[in-house]
Structures are given as structure tokens and as C-alpha cells.
Amino acid sequence: MTPAETFAIRTATSADEIPRVERMWLALYELQRQQGMQMVPPPGAFALWASSIKPTLGRFGQLFLAEGSGALIGFLAARVRSAPPWFGGATVGFVSEVWVDPEARGRRVGERLVRAAEEWFRGQGIERAELQVMATNDAARALYRRLGWDDELLQMTRRLA
Ligand SMILES: CC(C)(COP(=O)(O)OP(=O)(O)OC[C@H]1O[C@@H](n2cnc3c(N)ncnc32)[C@H](O)[C@@H]1OP(=O)(O)O)[C@@H](O)C(=O)NCCC(=O)NCCS
């Protein structure tokens, strides 16, 4: 059996599935904190995130789930949003979170998740996709580059207090 046959990607079928990604969502932001992210989600952040994605699910937002033998091994959250009118106001696809469990990495789960999001965007006629990635996250940056994503902006921050 090839690695590709050991997992499947699908979209969440209902908002009831959102809580399933909580442990991965928390692990992602803990990893990003270790990678230098200064905005740390406060206690209860996942519930706030869940309630923001819930009303959009299947319309302006999508939750892609990677499952192997029925168990969740990764997820990707995506949404569509509008560029500001002064940049033409086009609809843009945004990938907000991507996670693959450590033991499932290196088997193209991340690649399939990102490609699934790209297809979802393309199916809506969207011509541009965006995401933010920690500058120090070499694995994720290599994945995105392999899939044709380009470096565009560099976000700078300054502590004021
Ligand atoms: C980044 C992440 C999603 C990659 O998932 P994955 O399923 O292991 O990646 P894939 O197997 O699909 O990798 C596809 C390609 O991406 C690149 N890549 C992935 N992981 C890499 C690594 N650790 N080092 C270098 N390149 C890597 C390679 O080009 C790879 O192709 P190859 O195996 O032929 O070299 C996973 O490591 C992860 O969840 N990391 C923690 C969370 C995270 O960083 N999320 C992204 C936030 S923006």
C-alpha cells in the first residue's frame, strides 16, 4: 500500500466536527510560540476561533480534515475574504491554519491538504491565495514553495511596552 492510500482528505460535514481539531489547533499555536510568534492565544482562544468559523462553514469558510483509519491526523482551515477596494476588491483565498500530526508527517498529508484548499478556492473562481507562515518555519515554507507559493510580504513587529 502506498502512503497516499493510508489517509483521506475531506471537508468537515458539520460544525459538530470543529471541536475535533482543538488539540491540533492548540499544538499549532504552541509550536508557533516556540518559533517566535509574539501574539499568544489567551485561554479560551479555541472556543472563540471555533465560533468564528462555525457560521461560515461550507460557505466562506472550510475545514479540511485528514483521516487515517478513522483517526484525525491533520487539518487545514481556509476562508475567503475580499481584498480592499483600493486593491481591486477581488475575492482572495486565505489559509489560516495547517497541521499534520508529527507521526503522520512526510507522507504528503500536508501537500494534499493544501492542494484541497487550492481546489476549493479555484472552484469559486478565486485567482489568488494567501497565508502567513513563521519566518523560521522551514518545513512549512518548503512545503508551500514546492506547491508553487511565493514569498511576498515580510511582517515586522515591534514591542512598544
Ligand atoms: C508543515 C507540515 C504541515 C508539512 O506536512 P507533511 O505532511 O509532513 O508534508 P508533506 O509530506 O506533504 O511534504 C511535502 C513536501 O513539503 C516539503 N517539506 C515538508 N516537510 C518538510 C521538512 N520537515 N523539511 C523540508 N521540507 C519539508 C518537502 O518539499 C516535501 O516533499 P518531499 O518529501 O518530496 O521532500 C507539517 O510539518 C506540520 O504540521 N508542521 C507543524 C505545523 C506547521 O508548521 N504548520 C504550518 C503553519 S503555516
Defining traits:
five-stranded mixed beta sheet; 23% strand; 161 residues; globular; binds coenzyme A; 4 helices; 28% helix; alpha+beta; Aminopeptidase; 5 strands
CATH superfamily: Gcn5-related N-acetyltransferase (GNAT)
CATH topology heading:
Aminopeptidase
- Spatial shape: globular
Q: Give the DSSP E fraction (strand runs of 2 or more residues).
A: 15-25%
What compounds sit in this structure?
coenzyme A
> In terms of structural class, how would the helical and strand content be classed?
alpha+beta
User: Could you give the distance between the termini?
Assistant: 55 Å
Strand order of the largest sheet: 1-2-3-4-5
What report would you give on this structure?
By secondary structure, the protein is of the alpha+beta class. The chain has a single domain, classed as Aminopeptidase (3-Layer(aba) Sandwich), CATH 3.40.630.30. 28% of the residues lie in helices and 23% in strands. It contains 4 helices and 5 strands; from the N terminus they run βααβββαβα. It has a 5-stranded mixed beta sheet, with helices on both faces. A hairpin with a 2-residue loop joins β2 and β3. The longest helix is centred in the last third of the chain and has 14 residues. The model has no long low-confidence stretch (mean pLDDT 95). The site of coenzyme A has 19 residues, from α1, β4, α3 and α4.
